[in-house]
Amino acid sequence: MGAVKNKRMPRAVREQQMLDAAVRTFGQRGYRAASMDEIAELAGVSKPLVYLYLNSKEDLFTACIRREAEALTTAVREGVNPELPADRQLWEGLRAFFTHTARNPDAWAVLHLQARTHGEPFAAEVAAMREEMVAFVTGLILVAAREARRDPSLPEREVAGLAEALVGAAEALAAWANTTPGLTARQAAATLMNFAWSGLGNLMDGHPWTPPADTAPA
Amino acid sequence: MGAVKNKRMPRAVREQQMLDAAVRTFGQRGYRAASMDEIAELAGVSKPLVYLYLNSKEDLFTACIRREAEALTTAVREGVNPELPADRQLWEGLRAFFTHTARNPDAWAVLHLQARTHGEPFAAEVAAMREEMVAFVTGLILVAAREARRDPSLPEREVAGLAEALVGAAEALAAWANTTPGLTARQAAATLMNFAWSGLGNLMDGHPWTPPADTAPA
Amino acid sequence: MGAVKNKRMPRAVREQQMLDAAVRTFGQRGYRAASMDEIAELAGVSKPLVYLYLNSKEDLFTACIRREAEALTTAVREGVNPELPADRQLWEGLRAFFTHTARNPDAWAVLHLQARTHGEPFAAEVAAMREEMVAFVTGLILVAAREARRDPSLPEREVAGLAEALVGAAEALAAWANTTPGLTARQAAATLMNFAWSGLGNLMDGHPWTPPADTAPA
Amino acid sequence: MGAVKNKRMPRAVREQQMLDAAVRTFGQRGYRAASMDEIAELAGVSKPLVYLYLNSKEDLFTACIRREAEALTTAVREGVNPELPADRQLWEGLRAFFTHTARNPDAWAVLHLQARTHGEPFAAEVAAMREEMVAFVTGLILVAAREARRDPSLPEREVAGLAEALVGAAEALAAWANTTPGLTARQAAATLMNFAWSGLGNLMDGHPWTPPADTAPA
DNA sequence: TATGAATGAGCATTCATTCAT
DNA sequence: CATGAATGAATGCTCATTCAT
């Protein structure tokens, strides 16, 4: 376990080894519980070298978040064919998302749990990634609305909320899929498409669910 | 800020003060970053008294989780009128959920972020609460299917997945609502009802979204 | 276990219960590891009452030492008939000593181990008791010498050393007897009499063991 | 006093400095009363370094016991010429013992008082050393019996008891010698030889002290 | 006579971080 | 490029002791 202790390798390679070790440790132990000692040892490197390359624990954590956020968005982007209709694009994006998170559970734990739990600077880092995904979904919703040429006047905040909800549901299903044995990325994606797209379709047909008039204010 | 430093109060009262301080501190700083010193000070009490009443940091955290999980499920349960049809019950439950989480942001941070991020024992504690909510939603979906007397044969795992997705979406919207100024619990609930219930309705009409035949394996 | 929690009992009785609990706790846990909480609980009393009656942990420990030292010396004194010849007196004293220590292992642990290990004031307390025993033995040696009317001019320091050695041997045998199953006080006393008295007799016959002339200084 | 604060020395050296400081502190204050802070300061090192090298207070204490037990047994072993007759061997062993304990009073306090007073794991450590010494003495007694070709049939437990008594007497005399000014190791050894060897000789001549028939049971 | 409530002070332990080589 | 040696600063936890009743 851990990288083979090869001496004298180029900086770029060493850095990736360190990030690998860090992602694994942060993902399993959590940000605070992970010690630089453990990370250095798992990377097969002395602690000062970690500091030489990555400056501080905060910087190291940030570097992990950036690398893994980039990897996830790239995986989703590359999984989607932008020529296809909106529902197919969403389907492909979800499949890529569930596949990637299932294959990189520690990375997903870092992004979904640890980064959001340990203070502003880290949370902001994932928030950026999340916004990219929400924007992607928002775009698809608007495209779908245009394709259907019906009711193009969905209020902006409403669309934003729908996208938020969809991304949140996807995140929840990723965790659910990771802990439910025998559940494939494909099945998770299908469940979510059923849940969301059908609802959205109905919605855009002009038949939204109507909240009842209220007596007691919330 | 902080409780008035009244000396000599009965144990039950002090304990609640301590839990208040702990929820606030854990919610804002995180489990590891919160120090028992800070919690004690915020509670207006000396550290030994916290230990005398709550034994350890772990026990204190667990007590926080339990109290807030109980408070949240109670709020939702009491917000729902079980005589109403399924869609109205879900609507009321969501409203109660968004209202409670908006009013107790630290408690929600403890339940949604901190408890899930810091190890099995705590995660298990919230998992129980989550399962109660998922079960509640699952029940509503089945009732709705029966009420519609259509396609009563939804596969069990499918329903479970839908419920997971709905709860996940609700959790995401709770965070979104907490950070979007001027967004009411009512609006958040309506967005989610639109998103989900319309989709479910469509689904149960026998028009699910159909995944395309695949070429590349996932 | 522990005293029955009878309310409102006279001070003298309560004090003895506290000392019982303290001796047991100090003997088993050691002075520092024993907590006033544990002692109070074992005595079936609240902590402030222990302080009211016995002032402080130090005073409580000192009271234990005094009570048990007194009990041990009394047991030895009452076991010895001063009319008998010296060897019979020593035999009886040793039997009483081994019997008492075997019956009160916690008390013996307090006197022999704990009191000597935790600082001057306590060590001084047992030293007094020890000196009484050494004096008793010294007296017997001198009486024996007079009875034998031989070589009455044993140098004082020599006699003191012999008495120290005998008491030390007795203490070691007490520990040994306490941990060797099936070894009676009588057997322990016989072993020591054999060892010591025969040696002393020989010595006083004018046949001491002669140290060889030395080349290397110590 | 205390090591000169030379920075950057090899681990093995620092470890010995730490053990020196620990033996001194444990010997004078006792195990519980000794604080890691004090030990670190006396060693001229920061506390974390002590933990880095010696893991914990328990491990540090155990390391002290091991080192000093080894040093004492080595001193005795090297002080004895196994070619000599039994009485000479005992004489030399005792001289080495008293010399070593007089020169290393803190180490002797650690072994004789502290280690036996603070729980099983430590007591077991010294018990091993003590057994080695008892075995050494037991061997000498048996050799002496064979050399004298008299009464070779001493019962095993009897011999064990005699050896225990002799070692106990030696331990008592070591403490006595340490607190009696002007008393040399040589004198202490001579006193004990007189006490013990003469007694043993007598015993093996077939003139043991005979316990009187008993009326009252013990 | 007796106690529930409360604390100041200290202690073992850990960790991120740096220097000298 | 790489590391063994070293530390300042916290942090969780415990304990003897006291006050108000």
From TrEMBL, chains A, B, C, D:
Keyword Chaperone (UniProt): no
Q: Does the keyword Ribonucleoprotein apply?
A: no
Keywords recorded for this protein, A-Z:
DNA-binding, Transcription, Transcription regulation
Q: SUPFAM superfamilies recorded for this chain?
A: Homeodomain-like, Tetracyclin repressor-like, C-terminal domain
Where in this chain does the record put each HTH tetR-type domain?
Answer: 12-72
Cited InterPro entries: DesT_TetR_C, Homeodomain-like_sf, HTH-type_TetR-like_transc_reg, HTH_TetR, Tet_transcr_reg_TetR-rel_C_sf
Superkingdom is Bacteria
Annotated DNA-binding ranges come to 35-54
Task: Name it.
Answer: TetR/AcrR family transcriptional regulator
